[in-house]
Design brief:
Elements: H1 7-18, H2 36-50, H3 57-61, H4 65-81
Helix pairs in contact: 1-2, 1-4
Length: about 80
Amino acid sequence: MKHSCDPESVRAAFAAALGRDDFIDEESFFRVGGHSLLAVRVMKSISAAVGARLPVKLLFDHPSVVELSQAIQDRLSAAGARP
């Protein structure tokens, strides 16, 4: 499985869930029309793409494309560093 995440993947998941792609990568998912049900959809999509379970809370804590992609990458790297 992939086990890495880039901003383009997160942007694609946001765009698919929101039905639009005219947002800035630094904008909050929730300020551009996202809500909790769409957040679940986004995180399921990204989890499938990276091959790891990711909690929806990550999106609430890191609501922009830039923040979320970095948080996911950090989480995946930390998980890979474990024995």
